[in-house]
Every structure is written in C-alpha cells, then in structure tokens.
Amino acid sequence: MTETESVQVEATGETVGEAKWAALRELERMRPGIDKAAVRFQVVSEGERGLLGVGYAPARVIASVDAAAAPAEQEAIDESELAAEVRDVLEHILTAVAVSARIEIDENDETVTATLVGRELGLVIGKHGQTIDAIQYLANAIVWRGRGDERKAVVVDAAGYRARREATLSALAKRSAERAVSTARSVELEPMTAVERKVVHLQLKDVPGVVTRSEGTEPNRFVVIDPV
Q: pTM higher than 0.85, yes or no?
C-alpha cells in the first residue's frame, strides 16, 4: 500500500449512526492510532425498517481515510491526569453518538479546554449550542464527581464554536442594551442556555444605564435587560 492509497471499510447498522460507529471501530482495529477527524463517510443506504418489522434493510456506509492520516503507531500524549480523564469522557460520548473527531486539550491553572476537530460537528454542537453545553455539563459532572473543592472549569468547544457564538451574543447584548436605554423599556432576549446567559450578563455588567436578570424556567429561561 502506497501513502496515496486509502484505508476503506463498509459497515451496516440499524441506523446510519450505528453503521458509522461500526465502520469507525473497524478502521481503528485495522489502523491503531487513526486520526478520527480525517475519516470520511459515504452513506450507501439509509436503511428501511419495513412495515411491522417485515422487509427490514440495514443502513450501509463506507468509511475511508488516507493511509498517511492513519499512522501505525499513536504518539504518546503528555497530559495531566485530569486532562486524560476529560479526554476519556469525551471519547466515550463521541463513540456513543457516532461522531468522528480529534480531541485537542489545552490546560492552564484555571481551565481545561477540550476542542473537538472534525468534519461532522453539527450533531455535537446542536441547535443554539444546546448539545455541546450538555456535553460540557456532563463532562464537568463526571470528572469532578467525588473530587475535592478545588476545581478547574472544563470547557468543551468544537471548531471554534464558542468564540463565534460569544461574539454573536456580545453584539446582540450591546444592541439590546442600547435599545433598552433609548426606548426606556425592558428588552427580552431569546431563550438561552446557562452558558450563553452568563456571556450576556458579563458583557453588560459594567454598561451604564442597564441591569440584567434572568427569567423563566429551563429550557426556556431568558435574559431581560432593564433600563435604570
């Protein structure tokens, strides 16, 4: 096999997601240390369940990766015990949802940031970031279960989503604050996750002329900007 050739497998499952998961596992068996973010999937058939279970046909996918992106040996990763545990939790979650992604971890004194890099990250991010926020909450809950009080925040990002969303929310917060001041009326924002509401509160904390508060119940809790 030359470096320009690719490793390719075909797999089936009850759903496309299960078929992708099976194909990825087979690629990993064939080429340990595979770069999951480089795996490409082709859906051959989405499958059919049939009427009352009759005529069932499985979903079929073809997974392939360039030989150069599938090293025979995986380089050792020098990271802390905490970072390794975060990586392990996220690998289990990605496997469960059949998403191929590389996990890059950056750790400092206050935060462990895990960034997912891959081709199909929309499923991980979810609508308005609800899925990735849930994954982040789950990772924090699992990693810090039974540990002491001195905690580092675990942040889960995907292809720069956090920075893009924070910039969008910051701009929205500023425009809404200006509207609240100019009209002397409260402005209600759309429902947001707790992570996103925190961005808005922090953005407007020192802005003169307005105060912020949260109203409603999850998952429809939202920020209200009141003129002072």
A: no
